[in-house]
Structures are given as C-alpha cells and as structure tokens.
From TrEMBL:
Residues 1-20 form the signal peptide. It comes from Bosea lathyri. This is Polysaccharide export outer membrane protein. Keywords: Signal.
C-alpha cells in the first residue's frame, strides 16, 4: 500500500506542478459528492520521463513540456515508477478544513501532510486516495453571500467555496494581501496505461 501511495503522491504532485507549466492539457468534469456537494474532477495524462531514486525526484512529461516532482521519504521508495510509464491522474480539490493567517514572510507553497482515510470522497466513481494538504496563498477576497474565497497560490488565482461557518468567521477577519494557510482534503486516483 505504501508503494502505491508513493506513486500516487509523486504523480499527484505532478498535477500541482503542471499548473506552473504553460498550457498543460487538463480536462475536468463535475460530480456530486455526498456531504461535499459538486466537485470538479481534473484529469491529466502524463508520461514518467525520468526517475532519480537517490535524489527522490521524478520528471514528468506532457507533450514537449516536462517538470520535476520531488517525492518525500515518508511515501516510500520509487521502485514502482519507471521512465516511459504512462499515467492518467485524476484529482479532486475538495473541502476546506481550515483557514488561518500564515506566519510573517510566508511565500505561496503547497505542503502535503499525510494520507487520510476520512469519508470525504467515498462516493466518487473510482477509488480515490484522500489526503490533506496545506496551501499558503495570498488572500484576495471573501464573499459571505456565496461563501466563495478567492486567493492566489503557487498555481495562480483560484476560488473555493467555504461552507463551514467557523471557517467563514476566520476568513472574514482577513484583509486583501494577507498570506493565509488553507487546509484542504483532496482526492487522487491514478491509472497506468
């Protein structure tokens, strides 16, 4: 299971980093998840271009674009990842679990903390691995009428709906330009083909 999580983690990081590359081909569709509501499933098809197990780094490629992905030790070794492997990655950015002001001097970042086994995405069409991540981003705005928070993170401008009243109260105290740490639960699914 740990080896499977390591491949999922490596490839899912590629999805996040792909947002930094110019024009990655990402398709999406909306599904309704019990207890969460409508969520977008993003799909990205990549090829593993290179694996450097000693440096814990993989290079993924889509067309002529390539980008590096660092894989932390907690996710095991890289023995199941080989150059030339074709992988279809599906990602669901889900529920905001928390929001707080970031420490002074924080820069936009994504930190994957751990795999979680909570029920957040149990009725997705395939078996997704669910985990948490903390995103450090620049706060732009919050609309209390719609519950939509806008922020700019490492992947550019994004919006998410915040449904938890406690989290909404904390977000209301932020000012435009403040750095914020948003904690998400999200799901990943991969399939080698």
């Amino acid at each position: 299971m740990l080896k499977q999580i390591s491949l999922i983690f490596a490839v899912s990081l590629a999805v996040g980093v792909a947002g930094c590359a110019t024009d990655p081909t990402v398709t999406s569709r909306t599904v309704i998840v019990a207890g969460v509501g409508p969520v977008e499933i993003e799909q990205l098809d990549v090829e593993i271009a290179d694996v450097n197990a000693a440096e814990r780094m993989v290079i993924v490629r889509q067309g002529r674009q390539t980008w590096p992905v660092a894989v932390p030790e907690v996710f095991g070794d890289l023995q199941n990842i080989n150059a030339g492997d074709r992988v279809q990655i599906r990602r669901v950015e889900g529920v905001i679990l928390g929001a707080k002001r970031a420490r002074k001097g924080a820069k936009p970042a994504i930190v994957y903390t751990e795999a979680v086994s909570g029920p957040s995405f149990q009725n997705l069409p395939d078996k997704f691995v669910v985990r948490t991540l903390t995103l450090t981003a620049r706060f732009e705005s919050f609309d209390p009428a719609t519950g939509i928070v806008s922020y700019v993170g490492p992947l550019g401008p994004r919006t998410r709906t915040v449904s938890d009243p406690g989290i909404q109260d904390g977000i209301r105290r932020l000012r435009r330009g403040d750095m914020v740490e948003l904690t998400f639960a999200e799901g990943f699914h991969f399939q080698k083909y």
